C-alpha cells in the first residue's frame, strides 16, 4: 500500500501489459493495488503480492478480480475472449483498446457465456503519461453500467491522471486521435526541434537539452498556471519579434492548422476502422 492511509485500488485482472498497460500499472503500483493478476507473455515479473501469468489460458481459477482491464492490441483481443469470459460474469470489463466498441466486446464475451448472461463493458482511452500520474483518460459507459461500476473505473483511472466521461461512444474515436495518440505528436515536436537545432549548427547535446526542456517546461507552465494556451503563446510573442516571424509560417492556414486537422481526422478514421 502507498504511503497514505487510503484503501488500495481494487484488484485487477490486467490483460496486456505492454506500453499502455505497463504505463498504467506503473502508476497503480505506486498508488497501491489490491492483489492482482497481470497477463503478458513478455514481462519478466511483477512485484508481490501480484501474480504474473504468461497467457490467458493460464489464469488462476481461484482469482476473483474486482475489475478486468483489456490492454492488448485490438487485433489480439478476439483470441483472448473465451478465457476472459468466466471472469467477466462477476466483474466489469474496462477496455482501453482503440476502436473496439462496447457492443462488439460485449457480444464477443457473451458468446462464451451461458445463455442470457451479459458482461458489462466500459470503454476508455488513456495515454502513456499515466506512467507518471499525468495521464488523461476519457471513458464511455453504456446506460446499463451502475454508478458503482463507473465510480470504480474512475477511481482506478484517476489514480494515474485526469479523467473525463463522454455521453456518446463515437466521441472516444476523436479522443483517441487527440489525447490517446497526442503524446506521440508532442514527442515528435521534441524530436524535430532537436533535429533542426543540430541541422542549423548547434552541438547535438545542447539541441537535445533545449528541445526536451522546452516541451516539458511549456507543459509544466500550462499545467501550473492554468492560463489558456493561446494566452501563453501570446506571452512569448513580442510584436515584430522572432516568435511572430516563426509563427507566421506555422500558423498559416495550410500549415499546422490544416496539417493537424488532417492528422486527427486520419487517426479518428483509423480508430473507426479498428472497430471490427
Ligand atoms: N500505446 C499507447 O500509447 C496507447 C495504447 N492504447 C491501446 O492499448 C492497447 C495496447 O497497446 P500497447 O500497450 O501499445 O501494445 P503492446 O503490444 O505494447 O502491449 C500489449 C501486450 O499484451 C501482450 N498480449 C496480448 N495478448 C496477450 C495474451 N493473450 N496473453 C499474453 N500476453 C498478451 C502483447 O504480447 P504480443 O505482442 O506477443 O501479443 C504485448 O506484450 C491497444 O489496444 C491500444 O489501442 C490506448 C491508448 C494509448
Ligand atoms: O496508436 C494506437 O493505435 C494507440 C491508440 C492511441 C495511442 N496508441
UniProtKB/TrEMBL annotation:
Residues where NADP(+) binds: 15-20, 71-74
Entry keywords, A to Z: Amino-acid biosynthesis, Cytoplasm, NADP, Oxidoreductase, Proline biosynthesis
Gene3D superfamilies: NAD(P)-binding Rossmann-like Domain (3.40.50.720), ProC C-terminal domain-like (1.10.3730.10)
Catalysed reaction, written as an equation: L-proline + NAD(+) = (S)-1-pyrroline-5-carboxylate + NADH + 2 H(+); L-proline + NADP(+) = (S)-1-pyrroline-5-carboxylate + NADPH + 2 H(+)
Main subcellular location: cytoplasm
EC number of this enzyme: 1.5.1.2
GO BP terms, alphabetized: L-proline biosynthetic process
Entries under InterPro entries matching the protein: 6-PGluconate_DH-like_C_sf (IPR008927), NAD(P)-bd_dom_sf (IPR036291), P5C_Rdtase_cat_N (IPR028939), P5CR_dimer (IPR029036), Pyrroline-COOH_reductase (IPR000304)
SUPFAM superfamilies for the chain: 6-phosphogluconate dehydrogenase C-terminal domain-like, NAD(P)-binding Rossmann-fold domains
Locations listed in the record: Cytoplasm
GO MF term (any one): pyrroline-5-carboxylate reductase activity
Boundaries of every Pyrroline-5-carboxylate reductase catalytic N-terminal domain copy: 12-99
Function comment: Catalyzes the reduction of 1-pyrroline-5-carboxylate (PCA) to L-proline.
HAMAP family, sorted: P5C_reductase
Homology family: Belongs to the pyrroline-5-carboxylate reductase family.
Name used for this protein in its record: Pyrroline-5-carboxylate reductase
Originating species: Novacetimonas cocois
Lineage of the organism: Bacteria, Pseudomonadati, Pseudomonadota, Alphaproteobacteria, Acetobacterales
Gene: proC
Amino acid at each position: 500500500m502507498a504511503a497514505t492511509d487510503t484503501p488500495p485500488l481494487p484488484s485487477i485482472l490486467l490483460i496486456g501489459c505492454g506500453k499502455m498497460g505497463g504505463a498504467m500499472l506503473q502508476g497503480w503500483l505506486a498508488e497501491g493495488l489490491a492483489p492482482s493478476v497481470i497477463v503478458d507473455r513478455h514481462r519478466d515479473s511483477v512485484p508481490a503480492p501480484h501474480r504474473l501469468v504468461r497467457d490467458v489460458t493460464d489464469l488462476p481459477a481461484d482469482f476473483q478480480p474486482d475489475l478486468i482491464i483489456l490492454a492488448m492490441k485490438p487485433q489480439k483481443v478476439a483470441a483472448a475472449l473465451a478465457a476472459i469470459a468466466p471472469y467477466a460474469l462477476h466483474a466489469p470489463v474496462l477496455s482501453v483498446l482503440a476502436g473496439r466498441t462496447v457492443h462488439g466486446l460485449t457480444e464477443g464475451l457473451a458468446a462464451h457465456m451461458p445463455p442470457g448472461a451479459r458482461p458489462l463493458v466500459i470503454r476508455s482511452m488513456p495515454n502513456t503519461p499515466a506512467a507518471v500520474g499525468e495521464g488523461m483518460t476519457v471513458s464511455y459507459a453504456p446506460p446499463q453500467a451502475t454508478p458503482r461500476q463507473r465510480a470504480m473505473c474512475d477511481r482506478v483511472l484517476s489514480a494515474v491522471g485526469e479523467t473525463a466521461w463522454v455521453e456518446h461512444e463515437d466521441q472516444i474515436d476523436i479522443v483517441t486521435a487527440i489525447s490517446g495518440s497526442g503524446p506521440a505528436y508532442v514527442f515528435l515536436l521534441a524530436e524535430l526541434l532537436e533535429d533542426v537545432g543540430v541541422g542549423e549548427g548547434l552541438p547535438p547535446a545542447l539541441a537535445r537539452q533545449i528541445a526536451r526542456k522546452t516541451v516539458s517546461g511549456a507543459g509544466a507552465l500550462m499545467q501550473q498556471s492554468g492560463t489558456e494556451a493561446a494566452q501563453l503563446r501570446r506571452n512569448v510573442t513580442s510584436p515584430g519579434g522572432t516568435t511572430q516571424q516563426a509563427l507566421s509560417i506555422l500558423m498559416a492556414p495550410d500549415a499546422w492548422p490544416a496539417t493537424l486537422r488532417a492528422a486527427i481526422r486520419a487517426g479518428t478514421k483509423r480508430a473507426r476502422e479498428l472497430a471490427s
